[in-house]
Specification:
alpha/beta, Rossmann fold, Methionyl-tRNA Fmet Formyltransferase, Chain A, domain 2, seven-stranded mixed beta sheet, six-stranded antiparallel beta sheet, 15 strands, about 25% helix
Length: about 325
């Protein structure tokens, strides 16, 4: 094959959220010329319920990339349209919809799914949050071949990185850039048909779950390390929350303080220091560093404490 002829292969790139943007950006920087974006259609969102594109759709529009946004990616009309385009490879990253064998079979060179975990650990919809919640020391990115069973296909490549007190937002950004780097190195040989894959070890499978808003409610009877993991895992969505003076209260950032455990009851504000607001939990204390009281913007907990008499009050 002529040098860099792989750049002329026809690729469909499927995704939807912010995580899926850096890998596509890298493909554009590398001058892959034949790219079609497959993403979700616009939907109503926000307080005004205005119709908005998802982040990838917005990016592809700004880059003038051909984009298709079907409600159902397995719809016959889409399958016919893709057959007309004649794409040779499918790359997916946080697309959020199941694709059929009929769709996968369209691509003569196969498919690559970018999954932000070290499969077979954390198959499913929330691998980054699950790694933080469970206190994993490392996570990473897996490039795999999609099959009809979710996240169960053979693995092409994996790379691991440590988890260093990051929240989901920061860890997701790291993993997305890692995915872009991996894709850059992997695609040339894949598009030349030179990449093999190994089956996952089913004995080591763990599954992540769909996250709901109620999962982020803080239980002050839990250990401070458990609460801290929830606060980090649920940022930027759905955001850990509690109530103060019967008002909704979000928590964006925190730090465990497993010492000086005497005095106070779970949820009670027991101290204010230069790092933030100290709250009693079961088995220790936690320092709230970033907060958002109801009706106000995100702020440092120290700034919130300056304008409010907090000591002795209790979160519920």
């Amino acid at each position: 094959m002529a040098a860099k002829e792989y750049l002329n292969k026809s690729i469909v790139y499927a995704g939807s959220d912010i995580f899926s943007i850096p890998p596509l950006q890298r493909l554009l920087e590398l001058k892959y010329k034949k790219i079609t974006v497959l993403t979700k259609p616009p939907k109503r969102q926000g307080r005004g319920m205005k119709v908005k594109n998802n982040p990838l759709a917005q990016f592809s529009s700004e880059q003038n990339i051909e984009t298709v946004m079907p409600e159902d990616p397995n719809d016959r009309a889409l399958l016919d349209k893709l057959k007309e385009i004649g794409p040779e490879a499918l790359i997916t990253s946080a697309y959020g919809k199941l694709v059929s064998k009929a769709l996968l079979d369209i691509f003569s060179l196969g498919n690559v799914n970018i999954h932000p975990s070290l499969l077979p650990r954390w198959r499913g919809p929330s691998p980054i949050e699950s790694a933080i919640l469970e206190g994993d020391k490392e996570t990473g990115v897996t490039l795999m071949r999609m099959t009809e069973e979710l996240d169960a296909g053979p693995i092409y490549a994996q790379k691991a990185i440590p988890i260093d007190e990051e929240n989901t937002k920061r860890l997701s950004e790291k993993l997305s850039l890692l995915a872009a780097n991996m894709l850059e190195g992997f695609l040339p040989s894949f598009l030349e048909g030179l990449e093999g894959a190994r089956e996952q070890n089913e004995r080591w499978v763990t599954h992540s779950k769909i996250i709901k808003k109620e999962h982020a409610r803080v239980d002050w009877n839990e250990h401070p390390e458990t609460i801290d993991k929830k606060i980090k895992a649920y940022y930027p969505w759905p955001v850990a929350h509690t109530y103060l003076d019967n008002k909704y209260f979000r928590i964006w950032d925190s730090k465990t303080l497993i010492e000086n455990d005497e005095g106070g009851s779970p949820g009670e504000i027991v101290d204010i220091n230069k790092e933030g607001v100290v709250v009693k939990c079961s088995g220790g204390r936690i320092i709230l560093k970033g907060v958002q009281p109801e009706g106000k913007k995100e702020m440092l907990a120290t700034d919130f404490a300056r304008g409010n008499k907090l000591e002795g009050k209790r979160f519920s």
